[in-house]
Amino acid sequence: MPKMKTKSSAKKRFRVRPGGTVKRGQAFKRHILTKKTTKNKRQLRGAVNVHEADLGQIAQMLPKCGL
């Protein structure tokens, strides 16, 4: 049986925290920032947790992480 491969796009976008939660970066912060308000850009800072409804798909993309 061949090894399960990790999706390269997923390993660049998600990190599994020790407690089993998965963190991701915020979207809408890359370009066209001039029309976005300062408050909006400030609230897009930092990382957030992936919603628990999406954890099954992430577990399939990251088989070695033990989700």
From TrEMBL:
<protein>
    <recommendedName>
        <fullName>Large ribosomal subunit protein bL35</fullName>
    </recommendedName>
</protein>
<dbReference type="InterPro" id="IPR001706">
    <property type="entry name" value="Ribosomal_bL35"/>
</dbReference>
<dbReference type="InterPro" id="IPR037229">
    <property type="entry name" value="Ribosomal_bL35_sf"/>
</dbReference>
<comment type="similarity">
    <text>Belongs to the bacterial ribosomal protein bL35 family.</text>
</comment>
<dbReference type="GO" id="GO:0003735">
    <property type="term" value="F:structural constituent of ribosome"/>
</dbReference>
<keyword id="KW-0687">Ribonucleoprotein</keyword>
<feature type="region of interest" description="Disordered">
    <location>
        <begin position="1"/>
        <end position="23"/>
    </location>
</feature>
<dbReference type="GO" id="GO:0022625">
    <property type="term" value="C:cytosolic large ribosomal subunit"/>
</dbReference>
<dbReference type="InterPro" id="IPR018265">
    <property type="entry name" value="Ribosomal_bL35_CS"/>
</dbReference>
<keyword id="KW-0689">Ribosomal protein</keyword>
<dbReference type="InterPro" id="IPR021137">
    <property type="entry name" value="Ribosomal_bL35-like"/>
</dbReference>
<dbReference type="GO" id="GO:0006412">
    <property type="term" value="P:translation"/>
</dbReference>
<feature type="compositionally biased region" description="Basic residues">
    <location>
        <begin position="1"/>
        <end position="16"/>
    </location>
</feature>
<dbReference type="Pfam" id="PF01632">
    <property type="entry name" value="Ribosomal_L35p"/>
</dbReference>
